Automatic annotation (TrEMBL):
Belongs to the bacterial sugar transferase family. The chain crosses the membrane at residues 12-33. This is Sugar transferase involved in LPS biosynthesis (Colanic, teichoic acid). GO terms for molecular function: phosphotransferase activity, for other substituted phosphate groups. Residues 7-181 form the Bacterial sugar transferase domain. Keywords: Membrane, Transferase, Transmembrane, Transmembrane helix.
């Protein structure tokens, strides 16, 4: 009952309430992003969601558009400013995802949506992460965000799906609050670089062992 009906109702109510109550905060962050990082203020990125359906996830930008003498974008680490790191560390860059929650693309709690190119590299068990809506935060992020290895992160996703309940969602919210305010600058590192090694790791494992399981 909870996972099928109540969870979605709570997502709609909470996202509407938060959007209304904190519209002033979104406006302030949007102005600061425009002044410090440029436009567009938001960026949209394709991610797989429930049943692997691709949707566009919204975030505040955290990097500039600085380019080299040939007009090519500089590496992410060179475009990620101190302000961008602050947005990532506090997760303020992710508050536009409330729109995704309201639309039904996402939930407040669930496995974080990763890149579409990762889809061929999940084990059969890890594919369970796509049997629920992806979340603004999840058990993996609440247990260390980018500080845990891929196998562990995905095992947390599976654990969440297999034990989905109101109690589990409350636990994830509490752990997320502790994680956001308890970790160092490491959580604001170049997320693209951290995520980008997943396909490489799994491909190497596949070539070496002939299977994706560890």
């Amino acid at each position: 009952m909870y996972s099928k009906y109540i969870k979605r109702i709570l997502d709609i109510i909470l996202s509407l309430v938060i959007l209304i109550l904190f519209c002033w905060l979104y406006l302030i962050v949007a102005i600061l992003v425009r002044v410090k990082l440029g436009s567009p203020i938001l960026f949209k990125q394709q991610r797989p969601g429930y049943k692997e359906k691709i949707f566009g996830i919204y975030k505040f930008r955290t990097m500039t558009d600085e380019r080299d003498e040939n007009g090519n974008l500089l590496p992410d680490k060179d475009r990620l400013t101190s302000f961008g790191k602050l947005l990532r560390k506090t997760s303020l860059d992710e508050i536009p995802e409330l729109l995704n929650i309201l639309k039904g693309d996402m939930s407040f709690i669930g496995p974080r949506p990763l890149l579409p190119e990762y889809l061929p590299y999940y084990t059969d068990k890890e594919k369970l992460r796509h049997t629920v809506r992806p979340g603004l935060t999840g058990l993996a992020q609440a247990s260390g965000r980018n500080l845990v290895d891929w196998d562990t992160r995905l095992s947390y996703d599976v654990e969440y799906v297999e034990n989905l309940s109101f109690k589990m969602d409350i636990l994830v919210i509490i752990k997320t609050i502790k994680t956001v305010f308890g970790h160092s600058e490491q959580v604001a590192d170049d997320t693209n670089a951290i995520e980008g090694n997943f396909a490489k790791i799994r491909q190497e494992r596949l070539e070496k062992t002939g299977k994706l399981e560890a």
